[in-house]
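For reference, the entry.
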Amino acid sequence: MNSKFDFIDIAFDSLNKYQEELCGDHVEITQNEYSKIIVLSDGLGSGVKANILSTLTSNIASTMLRLGSDIFEVLETLEKTLPTCKVRGLAYSTFTIIQIFNDGNLYIVEFDNPRVVYIRNGEVYKLEENEIKFKDKTIIESRTTYQKGDVITGFSDGVVHTGIGKYIDLGWQRDEITKVLLNLAGKEKNAKSISKEIIEICNIFSDYEPGDDTTCLVVKIRDIEKVTIFSGPPKDKVKDHQIINDLKNVYGKKVICGGTAANIYAREANEEIITDITKLDPGIPPYAKIKGIDLVTEGVLTLNKTVNIIEQYLSKEFDSTILLKDNGASKLANMLINECTHLDIFIGNAINPAHQNPYFPDDLSIKWKSTHSLAKAVEKLGKEVSFIKY
């Protein structure tokens, strides 16, 4: 059952058909006050036409469901709206709809995409299905209640057709995909790592020349994991005590980025800063320890390197060993990728003279820019980010 202690972790990754600039698959994510709605659509063919069909389908379906329409109204609108292909004489786009309600209910609608794989407690969970007939189409509808730890994976047919004519004669069979998903669901904490791994396998099977647009969508129900970063001292020193008191009382992991911020915490909390200079990484200043804080790093250089690592993680090619390195940026990136669903950033408006021309406005300071770049990168990971200004 959903509660304020659950987080809906949503991620997807795609490959374009070889030599196509546009992907014929499209994922749309939206929400209203009582649910989150995800639509994965696969347009007929590939390239521009497929992209238009899938984008229209996912946008129409997600918008109508957000506004309270039922699936029949969605199907009727799609039937009337989608442009007909002059060559094939069809207006066709497959779709998978996953609607996750705040009250713990879950609604899945599938049309001609490979069926979703639903994993619960380390096993495949069989959904109760209901067939809907709409003109000449058969739609599969499923309803259930979700639980913490559930992993729901949807994909376009590019996943099951991957490798045909290359490494796998008959494509990647559903049973084999399921085995991989069962393994990934057990070891990976976040949805993004699962979708990335599935797409990377598809890329390898297709010898990096995908024969079709290929998309993997993953939804994981997980615990809320909060990380709070204190970056930048308040302009008014009177607020030093307030920001430190607030940081002490937050739930979850606590990080301090910047020497001035660390000194304020050490002074106000009467704790010692311990820096281990034996663990040096070229280009990244050493991190430190303060009792009660999970990670203490330098400011701008470490923040920028952390953003760089997260951007690499979001790209198609990523060396995961980077997250295991013993430096402040790798530790912070790993925390934000694997141990965070919500990031709160405590930020003051004081300017560090070492970073900024004092005649520039506060919002142009280098620390401000670095912190906001980090926030944008974390949002790309599907996390929720909030700023608390002092």
In short: The chain has two domains: 6-223, 226-389. The first helix runs from residue 47 to 66. The mean pLDDT is 90. The first strand starts at residue 6 and ends at 15.
